[in-house]
Every structure is written in C-alpha cells, then in structure tokens.
Amino acid sequence: MGVSGFDDMPGMAKLNGNAELNGHIVQFYENDPFLIDGVTRFIGAGLRTGHGGVVIATKPHRDHLEERLAEHGIDVAEARAAGRYQPLDAAEMLSSLMVGGWPDEKIFADLIGGAIARATAASSVQRVRAFGEMVALLWAEGQGEAAIRLEGLWNELAKNQPFSLLCGYPIGGFKNPKDAGPFTGITASHSTVIPAESYSTNLDADQRLRLVAQLQQKAAVLESEIAARIELQEQLQAKIEELADVDRRKDEFLAMLGHELRNPLSPVTTALHLMRMHENDPTRTARAREIIERQVEHMTRLVDDLLDVSRITRGKIDLREETVALSEIVDRAVEIARPLIDERGHRLMLELPERPIQLVGDSARLEQVLANLLNNAAKYTDVGGHIWLRATADGRDAMISVRDDGDGLAPELRQQVFDLFVQGVRPQLPAVRADEESFEPVDVDRLREVMVEARVFGSVRSV
User: Fold this and answer.
1) Across 133-250, where does the E strand assignment appear?
2) How many structural domains are present in the chain?
3) pTM above 0.90?
C-alpha cells in the first residue's frame, strides 16, 4: 500500500502537515510496509513544512524510512546536517534509560527531551514530530507495564515541549487473552488510535459498516468460545474434586475395614487358647468352636466388603436386614471386646430388659458398633475400671448405652470423636501395643445409617 492509500484511514488526517501539535498517535500494524508508510507520511509531512523530526527506531526501520523519504523528495542528509532530523537507535536508547527493568524518568527527560530540544531549535516553526518504537520493543520483551510507563513519560514530556508523537506496535503482539487489559491501557495513553491494515483503507462507508459488523460477529464467537472454555474448566475442576472425594472415601472405607478386621482376631485367639487348655472338655471346646465360627463368619463379611469395588468407591457399606435378638447382638459384641476387657482387669456390667427385644437390622454392623464402643471404653479407662452396657425399651424404641468410669473425652476432642483415628490420651499400660493408641473408627455417618435401619419392629433411638 502506498502513502496515498492512507487518506481514508481513520486518524490519518493527523499524519499530514496540519496535525495537532501535541497529538499522541498510536498505529498498529500487521506488516512493516504499512508502518513505514505511516511514519513516512507523518515525518515527511512535518519536514516539508519546517518541523523538526526525531525518529527512535530499529536500524532496519530507520533505513527503510530514509529511503522512502528520499523517494518523496526530502533531502534527509541535509535535514540531519541541519539538526532538524534526529535519528536514534531504539535499542540503544532503551539500554541507557532502563534502570532495574524500569524506565528512569530523569534519564528519559535528558536523552529524549534533549533530542526533542535540538530538533525544535533547528526547525523553522519551533515544532517537532517524533516517531518512537521503544515501547514496541519493551512489549515484545514481555515488559508490558514498563511499556505503558514509557508511554506516560512521553505524555509528561509533551506538557513542556512542543512535539507530536507517533508510536507503532505490531498487532500480532497482542494475541494472548491476558493482553486485553494492557492493550486498553496502551490505547488510553494515546489521543488517536489507527487500526492495523486489515481494517482496509479504500472502503466506502457501507463497506466499513459491514466490516465492523463482521468484527463484532467474530468478537461474539470469541466470547462464546471463552465462556465455553470456562464452563469446561469448571466441569473439569468439579470432576477432579469428585474423583478426589471418591479417593478419600475409598481410603477411609479401607482404613475402617482394616481396623474392623482386627477385632474378631482377639476372640478367635482366646477361643483357640481355651481349646488347647481344655481339649478334653467337649462343652468348652464346643463353645470355643462356636466363637471361632461366628468370628470367621464376621471376618468373611468384612472381606466381602473389601472385595466389593463399588462399595469402596462409594465409601458405603451394604446393610443386610434380618430379625435378631438384642441380647444376641450384645453377647457377640461382648465376645469381641472381652479379651481386652479382661486384659485390663475391668469389670463389665450388663443391664438388659427382662422382656426379649427383637430387632430388624444388620446384626454384623450392630455388633461392630457395640464392640467398638466397648473396646474404646476398655482402652481409655484405667486398669481395674468399670464398664456398663445398658439396654432399655420404651414402646417401639430401644436405647443402648455404653458408659465407663474413665476420665472421659477432653473438650477439644468432642467435635472430632467420630473422625477416623482421632487419638486421645490413653492410660499407660506396658503391655499395650503402640498401634492400639487410636480410637476405633466408629464413623458417625455409617453409624447413623446402621441405626436408622435397625428396628425393634420400630427403631433403635440412639447409641
């Protein structure tokens, strides 16, 4: 595109000889020829009318500009010799005025202000036109804030010295969505904005309106794509959090069952010991065998839970409803906890209703709940303590409670008592293993799930 092709571009009137003295113009460009044409018009028109000219550009751009000025009949060598034309290297100027990665105001005023002053003194009309692309170099180096600051220094300098300024930025440097804010800041620093050449230069008013409409449509598409991307990112984040929650529940579920698998081992070990001691006593041997059979059945149920992948990922346990006597639940829970109770020399007292109570619920889960409560009472009560297990019936409701004469929970632990492996201060006993220093994991949500489904042909109210 030749210089004459600029006549219809918005803002191009400010590139001719009648440009406002203190104008600060920014020209965006896609290709160097478009930039050089604009600078040729701006600087050339000024030199023809007696203005001074200051060009702070890269060497390729300076060389190309001077060729174009010469093509338009301007004696660049004469203007340089007279001091009206001041060519400066943009990279060298930047290296001189940047201090700690930031434009130094005083150095800028000395270097750039000095060049403007020399060109002004040599001009016949005491006016100067300047072109600068130091800001473009800063932006290309990723120093957007420094570029905007440098634009501000140009504006401050223009308050005290008579010059008009043209800046040039390659539009391709603003492709990142994060550039929208700085781009707005750059355009706000200028009195006139000239769009890049794809806007076209020789369009009539109707064609320009059509082009604006097309640009608006493209902007709407981009906004839609951005919104869709944000939605996808939110969905991805939600999925990540969901998978993390599944993984957490899996870990808690496996940890709970791992702890629960230890509970049946104590009565099994005790029963085997009794069988060895009383191998000639059929009654005791039969009783011990029943204990082992029950506990092995219980462990089989727990292993089934471990093998059920769907339950592991859901962090849930399945309930198997059946009719079972409350006394039977209590007997089996005591059977599990008895070895630890005896080991610590506690006295266990049971208080059950005279009338048999029938429950509809999951006997294995109810046994786990009561056994864990009894085990915790045994572990956290001083040796030789007392534990009470009490069951009462009230119409269609039943209540089971476990109480001991230990120190109880510290206030700060009461809100965490149902968290997995929360540890309290346990009475010292040399024989106790270190791996027993945590509460058995009586998970409150699963406990509630078990108890809601257990009914005295009604409901169990609380534990």
Assistant:
1) 163-170, 192-194
2) 3
3) no
